[in-house]
């Protein structure tokens, strides 16, 4: 199944995507959850209700007429991992940047306020010109879990989505955690929906790429992962409890703007498209950070 959030009558509503249309949950069955977050929190029982309702006739909104929002907006965690594609490790090494000990996974927080919709604009910050892209496979956690063995990791995955780990490189280097440079508003566009895990047979061998203004700048496969999906979940859950709806970003292949000579930072007006085989694509235009939003108190 493909699980989306759409804008409908001024509200964000969950919808099932099939046959080129979005079907709001409420039009399929009255007892379905009112958000994707609530669906995941409801566990197997909620998912079973949705599966039973999935083939019913409901209100069909053609996808070309639907506004797709971020499928999840406030997960308890949005985590990213660095240096997790072999080609990107070599790209960074070629720039003369020291590579950390990769026997330890390099995780960082990306604040959830960075989440944006799959076709929303990305802000070029007022405080930096070093705006970069990173195509990434996103894992959506479906079960509350801790101390998960690698062999059991797939049992806790609800599904997968397309993500762009937009990065502001000078801010990223201000501190070892990288969190500030990864957390600017709008710098985590995700979507276009969550494809449930049962429909993704080989998440560890999918084509993934980024295009800027139609030109391919990143082109890889998730088979390049230094730490695979199972290893990532096993490693993280030694430390923390993962909750339904948490999102893990799994790294990026070579071709980032910072890896080019000279760096090819994103500019205002450019369009960044991230595609993952079988999962769809997201596409975001770079706009100047709105001046009326750079300073406010509410």
TrEMBL record:
Organism for this UniProt entry: Rhizorhabdus wittichii (strain DSM 6014 / CCUG 31198 / JCM 15750 / NBRC 105917 / EY 4224 / RW1) (Sphingomonas wittichii)
Listed GO biological process terms: carboxylic acid metabolic process
UniProt entry keywords in alphabetical sequence: Isomerase, Metal-binding
Residue ranges of every copy of the Fumarylacetoacetase-like C-terminal domain listed in the record: 78-287
EC code: 5.3.3.10
Assigned protein family: Belongs to the FAH family.
Source domain of life: Bacteria
GO molecular function: 5-carboxymethyl-2-hydroxymuconate delta-isomerase activity; metal ion binding
UniProt protein name: 5-carboxymethyl-2-hydroxymuconate Delta-isomerase
Enzyme class: isomerase
């Amino acid at each position: 199944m493909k699980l989306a959030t759409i804008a409908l009558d001024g509200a964000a509503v969950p919808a099932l995507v099939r046959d080129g249309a979005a079907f709001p949950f409420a039009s399929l069955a009255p007892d379905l959850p009112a958000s994707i977050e609530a669906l995941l929190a409801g566990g197997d029982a909620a998912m079973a209700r949705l599966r039973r309702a999935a083939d019913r006739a409901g209100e069909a909104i053609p996808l070309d007429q639907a506004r797709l929002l971020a499928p999840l907006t406030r997960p308890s965690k949005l985590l990213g991992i660095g240096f997790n594609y072999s080609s990107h490790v070599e790209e960074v090494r070629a720039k003369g940047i020291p590579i950390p000990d990769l026997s330890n996974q390099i995780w960082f927080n990306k604040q959830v306020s960075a989440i944006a919709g799959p076709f929303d604009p990305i802000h070029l910050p007022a405080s930096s010109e070093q705006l970069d892209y990173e195509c990434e496979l996103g894992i959506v956690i479906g079960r509350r879990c801790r101390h998960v063995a690698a062999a059991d990791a797939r049992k806790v995955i609800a599904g997968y989505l397309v993500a762009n780990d937009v990065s502001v490189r000078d801010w990223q280097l201000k501190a070892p955690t990288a969190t500030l440079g990864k957390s600017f508003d709008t710098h985590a566009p995700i979507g276009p929906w969550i494809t449930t895990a049962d429909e993704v047979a080989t998440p560890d061998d999918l084509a993934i790429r980024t295009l800027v203004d139609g030109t391919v700048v990143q082109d890889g496969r998730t088979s390049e992962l230094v730490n695979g999906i199972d290893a990532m979940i096993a490693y993280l859950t030694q430390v923390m409890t993962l909750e339904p709806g948490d999102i893990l970003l799994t790294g990026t292949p070579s071709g980032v703007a910072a890896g080019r000579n000279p760096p090819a930072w994103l500019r205002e007006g450019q369009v960044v498209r991230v595609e993952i085989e079988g999962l769809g694509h997201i596409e975001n235009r770079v706009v100047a950070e709105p001046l009326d939003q750079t300073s406010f108190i509410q």
